[in-house]
Amino acid sequence: xxxxxxxxxxxxxxxxxxxxxxxxxxxxxxxxxxxxxxxxxxxxxxxxxxxxxxxxxxxxxxxxxxxxxxxxxxxxxxxxxxxxxxxxxxxxxxxxxxxxxxxxxxxxxxxxxxxxxxxxxxxxxxxxxxxxxxxxxxxxxxxxxxxxxxxxxxxxxxxxxxxxxxxxxxxxxxxxxxxxxxxxxxxxxxxxxxxxxxxxxxxxxxxxxxxxxxxxxxxxxxxxxxxxxxxxxxxxxxxxxxxxxxxxxxxxxxxxxxxxxxxxxxxxxxxx
Length: 272
Ligand SMILES: C[S@@+](CC[C@H](N)C(=O)[O-])C[C@H]1O[C@@H](n2cnc3c(N)ncnc32)[C@H](O)[C@@H]1O
Description:
Layout: E1 9-12, H1 15-19, E2 27-32, H2 49-59, E3 60-70, E4 74-75, E5 78-79, H3 82-92, E6 96-105, E7 121-128, E8 139-141, E9 152-156, E10 161-165, E11 174-176, E12 180-183, H4 203-213, E13 219-222, H5 229-236, E14 240-245, H6 248-262
Parallel strand pairs: 1-14, 2-3, 2-13, 6-12, 13-14
Antiparallel strand pairs: 3-7, 4-5, 6-7, 8-11, 9-10
Helix pairs in contact: 4-5, 5-6
This protein binds S-adenosylmethionine (SAM).
C-alpha cells in the first residue's frame, strides 16, 4: 500500500502490522518511546521489539533518523539494561548509533529510597540510516560571549585528540547545544491535553527533535504514539505525520490533540 494512504492520520492497531503496509525508505524521522520494560505483557500483548526495530530500518529513508526514548526498570535490585540491549540491536541491524542523548527531567518524581540516587533521566538514542541527512542544530548562548579569551581546549572524539587552540575573539554569542536536554514534565499548558495518558512526551522535547532532524513537509512517524504528542507537534511545525497506537482510546486522544492544532493555524511556527 502506498504511504500516502497513511499521511496525516492516526491509525489504531499493532504498529508491526501497520508498518508492514508502508513502502521502503519513506520516513524522514521517527520519534517514539516503547512501553518500558513491560516487555512480556502490555494489555495482554507481547511487545515484539525486534520486529519493530527491523520494520523501522526498512521504512526509514537513507539519512533518516529514529529517536528512541527509553529507560530501564529496576527489578530484583538491578536495572534491567533493556535500553542498552535495544540500542545494540538497532546497531546490529544496520543503524548508526548517531548519538546517545539524555532527557533530563527538571521535576523528577520523588522515589522511595532504595539505597540509590533518585532517577531523573531517560535515554534518547538517536539512530540514523547511514550518515544523517538533515541537522538543523539548536544553538544556545555562549557563557563567555563577547570576552577576549586567550585560548580553549577542543576535543576531537574521532581522533581521540585534545588540542589547545585560539578561540574566536571576542567569543561568539552562540554555540551548538549539548546533548543533555532538560525539560519540565507535565506542567506546561501545551502538555495538559495529554494528562490522561500515563507517559506522554513533553511537547518541547518532540519539537526540538523535529526541528533538528527534519525540514518542512518531511514525514514524521510515531509507531507507538500514545496521546499523540509526536503527531501534534509535527502538525504544528508543518511536517507530515503518521501516528499509530494499539489502544483505540489513545488514538482518539491523539486525533483530538492534532485537531486542536489544525483548528488554530496561528499556532503553526509559534515556536520557531
Ligand atoms: C510510552 S507510551 C508512548 C507515549 C507517547 N510518547 C506520548 O507522548 O503520549 C507507549 C505506547 O505504546 C503503545 N503500544 C504498545 N505496544 C504497541 C504496539 N505493538 N503497537 C502500537 N502501539 C503500541 C501503548 O498503547 C502506549 O500508548
